[in-house]
Design a protein that fits this description.
- This protein is of the alpha/beta class.
- It has a single domain, classed as Rossmann fold.
- It is built from four helices and four strands, in the order H-E-H-E-H-E-H-E.
- The longest helix is centred in the middle third of the chain and has 13 residues.
- About 20% of the residues are buried.
């Protein structure tokens, strides 16, 4: 999790905030509320504009509405569409303008 968040910080470094600077919009699509909250707190602390969705269909609706600069996307989501499906759908729809995507998962690798 920490390495993923570090990648987010490298993609959108801290900016000097003033009335002319617009912060990056970040959409977090994560089904676990506690992880969503943790990611949100870390990013809001640096002044990013954060939006949340708990599944892929809600995430797709938020992408249409918010037009995020960055999508923090859980790979394993409940429902008919997982995170990879959502990423592929966004990639095939150039009208939406695919945001930068960071895929995350809590699933560990087995040896």
């Amino acid at each position: 999790m920490n390495r993923t968040l570090m990648k987010v910080f490298f993609l959108f470094p801290r900016q000097a905030k003033n009335r002319y600077t617009m912060s990056a919009r970040i959409l977090i699509v994560e089904d676990h509320a506690d992880l969503r909250h943790l990611i949100r707190m870390m990013l809001e602390f640096d002044g990013y504009e954060i939006y949340e969705a708990s599944d892929a269909s809600e995430g797709l609706e938020m992408v249409h509405r918010v037009r995020p600069h960055l999508l923090v996307l859980d790979i394993m989501l409940p429902g008919g569409m997982n995170g990879l499906d959502l990423c592929r759908l966004l990639k095939t729809n150039p009208a939406l303008g695919l945001p930068a995507v960071v895929l995350v998962t809590a699933r560990g690798a087995t040896a």
